[in-house]
Amino acid sequence: MTAIRLYGSSDSGNCLKTKWVAERLGIRFEWIETSSFSGATRTPEFLAINPAGQVPVAILADGRMLAQSNAIMLYFAENSDLVPKDAYERAKMLEWLFWEQYSHEPYIAVRIARKYFLNQREEDLDPVLLTKGAAALARLELQLQGAPFLVNGALTLADIALVAYTRAAPRGGFDLESYPAVKAWVGRVERELGLEPLPPVGQ
Questions:
Q1: Per-residue confidence of the chain (203 residues) as pLDDT tens digits?
Q2: Which of 25, 32, 167, 171 is the most buried (most CB within 10 A)?
Q3: What is the CATH number of the domain that holds 69?
Q4: Per the structure, how many domains does the chain have?
Q5: Which of 44, 59, 77 is the last residue of a domain?
Q6: 69 and 106 housed in the same domain
């Protein structure tokens, strides 16, 4: 059987979360390292695959292309235990997926990229990234106080989507010690996915 080709960058939480779902569910795939930092997503060859010039991209076994991280995760996880069967719980999972891309990733991921990978100085960063990112972490903290996972006490795509950049938030200058429920949740999700914790910033 032909494996799925998964184009992604190991520096990107959006890309890694699709890889983690595939691994969790035993889906055969070929990982093709494609870094946006190096310009690999702007080449004519890649733009022929995805005209949007973004990773991740999945080329399915039948040759069809699928882009956008949460869409890829949903496709991989169809009929799996990572998607709740109950309609309301499934909608709550989707609510978190939409929130992640609108209210979490644009601030935390952008600070990680600019501060950690591009080595931009703090004074050159938009202060809104810090305030909005902290607000997103506070929202997660509120949800996770007394709850092991985001939806109905079980691991779902919502957890995998949100842990990708949350676990790396210290790289963007966010202190997870200020969010103990979030920090504990990150550890639980990492153990569920078999991930090694990220080393402390500076190591």
A1: 568 999 999 999 999 999 999 999 999 999 999 998 888 999 999 999 999 999 999 999 999 999 999 999 999 999 999 999 999 999 999 999 999 999 999 999 999 999 999 999 999 999 999 999 999 999 999 999 999 999 999 999 999 999 999 999 999 999 999 999 999 999 999 999 999 999 988 75
A2: 167
A3: 3.40.30.10
A4: 2
A5: 77
A6: no
Any domain includes 202: no
For 89-151, the DSSP string reads HHHHHHHHHHHIIIIIHHHHHHHIIIIIIS---GGGS-HHHHHHHHHHHHHHHHHHTT-SSSB
Tell the residue number behind the tokens 């799925």, with chain if given.
4
Answer yes or no: pTM beyond 0.90. Answer: yes
Q: Using DSSP bridges, classify how beta strands 29-33 and 4-8 pair: parallel, antiparallel or unpaired.
A: parallel
Cα atoms in the 13 Å half-sphere on the side-chain side of 186: 21
Both 53 and 135 in one domain: the answer is: no
Regarding whether 92 and 188 lie in a shared domain, the answer is yes
- Domain holding 189, by residue range, is 87-193
Distance in angstroms (rounded) separating the CA atoms of residues 160 and 24 = 10
